[in-house]
Design goal:
Blueprint: H1 2-15, H2 17-45, E1 57-66, E2 69-73, H3 80-87, E3 94-107, E4 110-120, H4 124-127, E5 132-134, H5 137-140, E6 146-150, H6 151-157, E7 165-168, E8 172-180, E9 193-196, E10 219-224, H7 235-245, E11 254-261, H8 262-265, H9 283-310, H10 312-324, H11 329-366, H12 378-404, H13 408-412, H14 420-457, E12 467-471, H15 477-487, E13 493-499, E14 509-515, E15 524-530, H16 535-539, E16 543-546, H17 551-556, E17 569-573, H18 574-579, E18 592-595, E19 601-608, E20 623-626, E21 634-639, H19 644-658, E22 667-668, H20 669-675, H21 678-712, H22 714-722, H23 727-761, H24 772-798, H25 802-806
Helix pairs in contact: 2-9, 2-11, 2-12, 2-21, 9-12, 9-14, 9-21, 11-12, 14-21, 14-23, 14-24, 15-19, 21-24, 23-24
């Protein structure tokens, strides 16, 4: 019997090739979307689960409360780890690491830039389960001058046999003590080499102190809690710990430490200063993705249902004969479910091939490492099986029940019609659901597009056009003067400035500031940027009160000068003026401010217009500019765009002469700014993709429903044509019903889309107002696409010869 069912099912598929193709195509697209979304969700949920101490590993984090509010950081002071070992001896596994973005690595005469560098102590590989291929990290990482390379980096650096030493920068010589496996992509800690912690010196960090509790920089501390210790029991002990070790620090800041579970790190955006290429996810994002996947699958299944019911009349005689010969309703239901299962199976196989083909592009786009390893991923196998069963039952059950319930006498007399008003209502509801989801996604896409356009057009408070930034490795006074003298000789280089970083960059010191006359009782958070006298002209900052630094002031702004000779000045932004309680920028000129940078008290000489230091997700915060030549690690240049190529070659040539041991690298400032919104661009692209998929599958479903209606109304159309109806009036007969359905879908979609996008826009401190035109465009586009689909099928019905449809009457 099963063999007979298979043969007949295949004949039906071949007989109705167009319908079969549409069914398979729609389900394949829907299932491909579901598989990709499943891989995205499970990828994020699997973060750090390879760690042997996954359930007992914690990161020590800190919260600092000041007049500005609470600032939460993952980075902790360098003395913390040893102090914790001393005060909590019952917790033996405590490790600390320091993260470095990139360093110049030399092996003999070869040199290259290497990213993601860790300095770690001897317990690092005891706490974390990264695979050690050779060497003894516990012994070697406790000694200075030792390094473990990942397999991939070792292949690049140790090309010549017998090479056992490397050099990072011009400062640290390291012996290669062993090789470790590359960290999994699902690790929140990524590294290419692990350097022994004793190799980390203040000189390597540009003079940043390693023994001060008030300096966090990029140190991270992790512990493994024994099963006998409750994490909550450590909270009250941290208060005494802070009091003991931070008694000499700024008492206007209420400092607290707490534990963050390893399993929460990937899903938390609370803590700043995370290591390197660290990326967050949010559970709500995964839930939204999951719901979106279900909706797309539902749209695909609805498409199948509409097409199956459209074929009902063609199958009616087969059903009537089977029932006359004794077929039971259950047998017919099973038969139709079997047909659905075959189509679903084909769709699953196609979707697996499509997913495998698309994964390289998806991974580049999402910067993830998704893999379709069916044999080694039991969760994926269970998901695929569940997907097949769900799609089969959801797509096939309703048509199977309807078709198997035909009255054989009515069927054989050609007296079946639409399966009652309830059946027509169900199909219309399904179409409304399809286009409701499609319109929500279209509205969302238009609003995201408006926000992205706002990002690109909103003034940032500084100039970003035709500016390049170049990292500078070692900026001695001689280097700085030599490079400036060479580059200023080129008229295509309009301005050149040395600083810690561009206006919108992560290159600033987060510290505290307060009016010296008021003391530390009103201490606020501030971002401090070391800049030179040319910074204002290079980046186009606008001075609203006071003046800029002079050359003489910059020369005296040097902590290495004897006491009494060094002198500093501050320039603040308008946000800092408001934070300190002044209404007019002129009122702060001449006031003295104290910052956390070596407790420096200095006069405010100028106020600049507010400019964005971070992305538009965040409000403009207080910023303080001061001259600090020892921290000029970036050169910013405004160049003539019409001569850009030749100017870059000129800069590179002179760079290589001043810094012969370092690579020349540069970035466009506008591209650096665009990188701040990379995740938002991905969101925009995902909206466009899923909106397109929903519309496409929805139109397939619409085609199915119009096919059903056309088959049901063939005689009515024939009579109307005999009575003189035009082709246009017959097309309108079909179209007006769907216009009504799409308008109903829009009425349901509009409030849903408004609520969802309003919540999304709350992530931005600077955002657009939702425009009503986005809703009009969405409903207009949906109507246009749907009417094109309806018109194509209704035109075929309208031009059918009435003699063919009325010959049995």
């Amino acid at each position: 019997m099963i063999k007979n069912y298979l043969i007949i099912a295949l004949r039906n598929f071949l007989r109705n090739k167009n319908y079969t193709l549409i069914n398979v195509l729609g389900l394949s697209i829907g299932l491909t979307s579901c598989i990709v979304i499943f891989l995205m969700i499970t990828y994020d949920l699997s973060f750090d689960k390879f760690q042997a101490h996954y359930n007992s590993l914690y990161r020590i984090v800190q919260d600092a409360e000041s007049a500005s509010g609470i600032q939460s950081e993952a980075a902790t002071p360098y003395p913390l780890a040893q102090a914790f070992r001393n005060d909590f001896p019952e917790i033996p596994l405590v490790t600390q690491m320091h993260y470095q973005d990139e360093v110049l690595v030399r092996v003999g005469d070869d040199k290259q830039i290497v990213e993601n560098i860790l300095f770690a102590d001897s317990l690092f590989f005891e706490v974390f389960s990264f695979k050690v291929i050779s060497g003894n990290p516990k012994a070697e990482l406790g000694q200075p001058g030792k390094v473990f390379l990942t397999e991939s980096l070792a292949k690049k650096l140790l090309k010549q046999e017998g090479v056992t030493t490397i050099k990072i920068g011009n400062k640290v010589q390291l012996d290669v003590a062993g090789i470790v496996a590359d960290p999994p992509a699902t690790s929140h800690i990524q590294f290419t080499m692990v350097v022994s912690m004793p190799s980390l010196t203040e000189d390597f960090l540009g003079g940043l102190p390693l023994d001060e509790w008030g300096m966090t920089a990029s140190g991270f501390t992790y512990i493994v809690l024994p099963s006998t210790i409750d994490p909550a029991s450590l909270t009250p002990r941290f208060a005494a710990f802070v009091k003991k070790y931070m008694a000499g620090e700024d008492q206007s800041i209420k400092q607290t430490y707490s534990l963050q579970a390893l399993q929460d790190i990937h899903f938390s955006k609370k803590y700043t200063k995370n290591p390197g290429t660290f990326s967050n996810a949010e559970y709500t994002d995964l839930v939204v993705l999951g719901i979106l996947g279900l909706f797309i699958l539902a749209i695909a299944c609805i498409n199948f249902i509409n097409l199956a019911t459209a074929l009902a009349i063609k199958k009616s005689k087969e059903i009537g004969i089977r029932k006359t010969l004794g077929a039971k309703r259950g047998q017919l239901t099973l038969y139709f479910l079997g047909e659905t299962f075959l189509i679903t199976l084909c769709a699953v196989l196609i979707s697996l091939c499509a997913t495998e083909w698309l994964l390289p592009w998806i991974n580049r786009f999402l910067t993830k490492s998704l893999e379709l390893n069916i044999l080694s991923n039991p969760m994926l196998v269970l998901f695929l099986l569940g997907l097949m069963v769900t799609a089969t039952l959801f797509s096939g059950f309703y048509p199977a029940v309807i078709l198997s319930g035909f009255n054989p006498a009515a069927v054989l007399k050609n007296k079946i019609s639409a399966q009652g008003s309830s059946g027509a209502t169900v199909r219309k509801v399904l179409v409304v659901f399809q286009f409701m989801i499609a319109q929500v996604l279209i509205i969302g896409t238009l609003i995201v597009a408006d926000q992205m356009e706002y990002f690109n057009s909103k003034p940032l408070g500084f100039n970003k056009e035709a500016i390049i930034t170049i990292p500078i490795p070692e900026i001695t006074a001689q280097n700085k003067l030599a490079l400036r003298a060479r580059l200023e000789a080129n008229p295509n280089i309009q301005y050149l400035s040395y600083s810690l970083g561009a206006p919108t960059s992560n290159n600033n010191f987060n510290t505290g500031f307060y009016l010296t006359e008021k003391g530390t009782g009103e201490r606020y958070d501030v971002g401090l940027k070391p800049v030179d006298i040319h910074y204002r002209d290079t980046y186009g900052l606008k001075l609203v009160a006071g003046r800029w630094f002079t050359e003489a002031e910059e020369k005296r702004a040097d902590f290495s000068l004897p006491e009494g000779e060094a002198e500093f000045k501050y320039i603040v932004n308008e946000a800092a003026v408001r934070t300190l309680g002044f209404h007019d920028p002129k009122d702060i000129i001449g006031k003295f401010i104290t910052t956390g940078v070596r407790r420096t008290s200095a006069e405010v000489i100028g106020v600049v217009e507010d400019f964005h230091v971070t992305s538009l997700h965040d409000k403009i915060k207080p910023v303080l500019l001061m001259s600090m030549p020892e921290f000029y690690f970036t050169a910013g240049m405004k160049v003539a765009p019409e001569h850009f190529s030749e100017t870059i070659k000129f800069i590179e040539k002179n760079w290589n002469e001043v810094f012969p041991d370092y690579f020349f690298e540069y970035e466009f400032l506008d591209q650096e700014l665009a990188a701040l919104y990379r995740q938002d661009e991905r969101t925009f692209t995902l909206f466009k993709i899923f909106a397109g998929i929903s519309i496409f599958i929805g139109c397939l479903g619409l085609y199915g429903l119009i096919s059903f209606m056309a088959n049901q109304k063939l005689k009515e159309v024939g009579i109307r044509k005999v009575m003189g109806a035009s082709v246009t009036s017959i097309m309108m007969l079909f179209s007006k019903e769907f216009i009504k359905l799409i308008v109903i879908a829009f009425v349901m979609a509009a409030p849903l889309a408004w609520y969802a996008m309003h919540r999304w826009l709350e992530n931005f401190a600077y955002r657009i107002d939702i425009r009503w035109t986005a809703f009009l465009i969405a409903v207009g586009a949906t109507l246009a696409i749907a009417l094109l689909t309806v018109s194509y099928r209704s035109l075929r019905a309208a031009v059918t010869n009435p003699a063919e449809t009325l010959r049995t009457e």
